[in-house]
What we know:
The structure is a homotrimer. In chain A, 45% of the residues lie in helices and 12% in strands. By secondary structure, chain A is an alpha/beta fold. In chain A, helix 6 (169-182) packs across helix 7 (209-218) and helix 7 (209-218) packs parallel to helix 8 (237-250). The first copy, chain A, starts with 7 loop residues before the first helix and ends in a 7-residue tail after the last helix.
Amino acid sequence: MSKKSNVKQFTDVLEKLDFSKMYEGDFFLTWEKSQDEIEAVFTVADALRHLRENNVSTKIFDSGLGISLFRDNSTRTRFSFASACNLLGLEVQDLDEGKSQIAHGETVRETANMISFMADAIGIRDDMYIGKGNAYMHQVVDAVTAGHRDGVLEQKPTLVNLQCDIDHPTQCMADTLHIIHEFGGIENLKGKKVAMTWAYSPSYGKPLSVPQGVIGLMTRFGMDVTLAYPEGYEVMDEVVEVAKKNAETYGGKFEITNSMADAFKDADIVYPKSWAPFKAMEERTELYGNGDMEGIKALEKRLLAQNAEHKDWTCTEELMKTTKDGKALYLHCLPADITGVSCEAGEVEASVFDRYRDPLYKEASFKPYIIAAMIFLAKVKDPVAMLKKLEKNAKERRAE
Amino acid sequence: MSKKSNVKQFTDVLEKLDFSKMYEGDFFLTWEKSQDEIEAVFTVADALRHLRENNVSTKIFDSGLGISLFRDNSTRTRFSFASACNLLGLEVQDLDEGKSQIAHGETVRETANMISFMADAIGIRDDMYIGKGNAYMHQVVDAVTAGHRDGVLEQKPTLVNLQCDIDHPTQCMADTLHIIHEFGGIENLKGKKVAMTWAYSPSYGKPLSVPQGVIGLMTRFGMDVTLAYPEGYEVMDEVVEVAKKNAETYGGKFEITNSMADAFKDADIVYPKSWAPFKAMEERTELYGNGDMEGIKALEKRLLAQNAEHKDWTCTEELMKTTKDGKALYLHCLPADITGVSCEAGEVEASVFDRYRDPLYKEASFKPYIIAAMIFLAKVKDPVAMLKKLEKNAKERRAE
Amino acid sequence: MSKKSNVKQFTDVLEKLDFSKMYEGDFFLTWEKSQDEIEAVFTVADALRHLRENNVSTKIFDSGLGISLFRDNSTRTRFSFASACNLLGLEVQDLDEGKSQIAHGETVRETANMISFMADAIGIRDDMYIGKGNAYMHQVVDAVTAGHRDGVLEQKPTLVNLQCDIDHPTQCMADTLHIIHEFGGIENLKGKKVAMTWAYSPSYGKPLSVPQGVIGLMTRFGMDVTLAYPEGYEVMDEVVEVAKKNAETYGGKFEITNSMADAFKDADIVYPKSWAPFKAMEERTELYGNGDMEGIKALEKRLLAQNAEHKDWTCTEELMKTTKDGKALYLHCLPADITGVSCEAGEVEASVFDRYRDPLYKEASFKPYIIAAMIFLAKVKDPVAMLKKLEKNAKERRAE
């Protein structure tokens, strides 16, 4: 490539931010991070991408492992994490619970140490059961922190939350970085209206982490965030509180409505996506805990019936016309339930989805860089100096 | 190692060839490539092997992923692709459809982009259904080409066809490179007689890609290629046309016979291997399409019975004696059905197979280098300069 | 890190040892290695760890594969092998037999070659059937040795026995290196009493390789090794003979007792762990060979009943008090069956296990380095020079 990199545009921003506490830290929930820390992640993600686009290697590890631990299958998350690790020089090892001895009753503490002797990063996705996923991540971090303190581990691997029962930070930060790029800068988000709305899906039990993550994060930039859902599809109270407080603190708005039309009206950004009611997910978690399979089946049936009452909650061309200049930016974490394509009736009309296909793919493309930035900030003592050093060394990623 | 590398022997050949169109390209079918391009793959494969044998690193990637996507299990293909990627510096990530969301009805286009953000190569094996495998590979390439054009992907990964319904280019090029080495040069292939013949196997539905790939490729070097099979075991018409045209263009011969003995008579090279009739595979594809499991079972029964009528189609010592000086080079893509070893009656007598064990393993050993050469030629703008640079840098593969 | 490495402390030791025969060799059983060779593995393991702790890269491979082949699932062993390979620069490829064509009746010889074209190391765990695991490893080594000799493979991968039916060398050497560190040097092991004792477990058919490996290895250092088990839980005769001979040769003691109390009395080190009777494992192997599933079930039932007669064989606080100063070092290969934690009644009381948690995790932390040392000694012609070179080059493992 003939392009020349210019990492200064990013290090200049970083030099004004305080993110010193991220060193040797972990990433659980966006609202546990300061504004400077959130902006540091965006900036490092952009810097890593910029270097890669200019064929500059960003490998900061000569060897080392990145451990992925997923409770369910996930092509995209797996590839995002693997891409991020590879970009930094870590080799991915999957801890598939089906394959592992965790299933045999081992303690989390022991396994966490046993897999971490040479691990610099651990990515966990555990979004299935309310009250479990985030708690599990903390158990893992506590275990490896103690292991490092007690001389068992030569390094403490950094935890990246790849989706829990509460938040989906890598997704929502990728979504937001996409918006930042589309609107030409984080400073341009102020006053923009975001509609995070429920949408109909023929499937059952979709996680709450995306809507929760979105209202917990996007309320931080002075935006006007509306959460819309049919009555009964409430999300976690504590995240609603976070969103309210953010709106106050950062000079934005946060509203809840039961009308998709109200949410879409004049919106700059729309994010129509299905999820399950929080109360139902709590109930499911308890039923699974009791091994009550009959109860699970009954719940599933009830939830599908409940969903079916709201087939009109779908992102149509008509609704899109009511958004700002009829041109709101359509977001989705993918894969979407597309009416007439992946299902009979779903979250979005095919023509809307088709028109936004490129932006949607770009939105997804930020995720590996967000993950890499989280690891970078936890593992590099002086990120500004390191970015400059990488640019100066200018090791080619692909030999030319 | 005390040996000194001499990559000039390969770059001298490459300098006379025009393979400029391979840059940023893909590898679907051998007959879509020019003679110079085919020879460039052989030459780069030999050059990479020569460098590795002399302990010179051929890593052209500092980071990056090689994605493997197999519709069925395959130890050898998986290891060949992994070896090729590792040799060039790419880390392999398997996209196991069992694990992935492809199975959940996602579009090929979306998944292809989602896994390719940091992918430099994609290897696909999809040989099960007629009319599907090669078409699927084109869908993937179209998707990532559009993704790269539209700014979603920073690079377009190169596609390597690891076996489709039509051709098996990495296998047949490894077979041919083996022949080239055994006969002391590509120029010595002229006039050699190749017998690509059907052979009995107790199993059902073996793919057609090997015989098709062989007649589509080996007819290019002035060889006298005979395709032999019992009536009813016809291969795809369009590949037969390719073979005929090749023979005309390159001054060789292509014949079809229903006699194994005729094919073996005076052959320099024999390739006895089972396959299923093309028409039957078409029928099977349709039955699967209709979910007609009863039909599948009936077809399988019919095909096994049909196979059993031709148990005399087996590579015996007696037949081998009728080949050129009784010493034809015996080829197989492995694993073979060996009479009295892996089955009661199969493709080849144990004593014949045993005598050719070493050459067969060598034949297989070319495949990782063929795959690596295909990736190298698609990813390196000036392969001649790069080979010289690798030799000059002389980075050790294994520290000494 | 501000610490400075000093690899001379290790190379000084290595310079006095003769381990020249390990080059291009394999690691099957500890008692097939000389005293110098065993000490070389400990020393190189310590040296590699020392370099890593001082952030010095120990990558001796620029590319190359490490193949793992497990007959059963194993998180810890898989991660240990992956960590060791990664530390040296090899990329791990798992040969999962479920995925591979081995299951389809291929010969070991063929598969071993097909996966080894670019393999520098092969780690095998095959501990299930008596008379099979170690034999299988030899078949693989014979195959790749022939493949290398005959020009099929450019290098002979080195075999690391990750657990067989006879020995568990990487585990027992990690255990011993842990003891060496705890007691301040290999010279301090002389006269120390080791109690390798059977302990009750509610599960069935635990492998014999750990007790066998321990008595086969720990009798080499002038230690006083006692093997204790209830009548009927005998281990392999040939390993008992090894232990006896070692005790004679190296000036230690080896005794067998049927009393756990006798073994624990005044012990410096205790290793209470369940295993199945050797005779029963022989019987099971035969039953599996005959496909006698009814017989297997009956055997399992009988063995569980037999185990249950010995619930008093458990490592209690009371027993621990009878050890040297009440402070014997408690060892376990993990995971342990902990009474009241992972089972109702098991190998060890929870309070004992808890007190030794950190040392147990440290014990496990040596395994990746032991494996890496075995590969290093087989792949590096002059290990002393290489360690010095790595220190001198001082390539950072993690960029600072």
